[in-house]
Amino acid sequence: MLYNVAQLMKASVGATLEYPIHEEGVQLDEDLKIVGPLDGHVRIRRTNQGLLVDGWVDLVLELSCTRCLTTFEQPLHVPFMEQFYPTVDVVTGIALPPIDEEDIFPIDDHHIIDLTEAIRQNVLIAIPMVTLCREDCAGLCSQCGHDLNLGPCDWQARS
Ligand SMILES: [Zn+2]
Ligand SMILES: [Zn+2]
User: In this structure, which residues have their CB less than 5 angstroms from ion ligand 1?
Assistant: First the structure.
């Protein structure tokens, strides 16, 4: 997810570019399985120091159920807003001193920004701690491990 922002970095504060996002076969993180395309929208605005990048992505993740361990597909709507700062001066090409701030992303020396890492971080935050295949998932039997969504196990039927 690369965007060339050279023209925008030469523009005045408040100048804005907007793009639809449509990416097939995205691999954000080795632990994240994305089913189908990633769709969304991004708005890139010139600020005093760099760029304010915000927007959203819609994607479907393959997650495993916290209770019964079955994998299931979870649609997610993930808004994001991040700051990007230049690493070189867009007019002179001279390297700029690194900015001592956390949670910022670089605009590289070819004036390209890559949204992948910003989106990866926001997607990870958007995944709930407890992921359930359905709200009333019955989970696994604590004695034999049988999936109780499929009905009671022998152990339970006897007790
Ligand atoms: Zn489940
Ligand atoms: Zn059982």
Answer: 65, 67-68, 133, 137
Q: pTM above the 0.90 mark?
A: no
Residues with C-beta atoms within 5 A of ion ligand 2: 141, 143-144, 146, 153, 155
Contact 81, 103 (CB under 8 A): no
The closest ligand to the CA of 151 turns out to be 2
Q: Considering every ligand atom shown, identify the ligand nearest to the alpha carbon of residue 153 and give its number.
A: 2
Collect all residues with Cβ–Cβ distance below 8 Å to 8 and sequence separation of at least 6.
15, 17, 44, 46, 51
Phi, psi of 68 (to 5 degrees): -110, 0
Distance 151 CA to ligand 2 centre (A): 10
- Averaged over successive runs of 10 residues, the pLDDT of the chain (159 residues) comes to 95 97 92 94 96 98 95 96 94 86 88 95 94 95 93 79
Q: DSSP letter string over 5-68? A: -HHHHHSPTT-EEEEEEEESS----TT-EEEEEEEEEEEEEE-SSSEEEEEEEEEEEEEE-TTT
Q: How far is the CA of 157 from the centre of ligand 1 (A)?
A: 20
Task: Show me where the domains of the chain are located.
Answer: 2-158
Farthest-apart Cα atoms in the chain, separation: 80
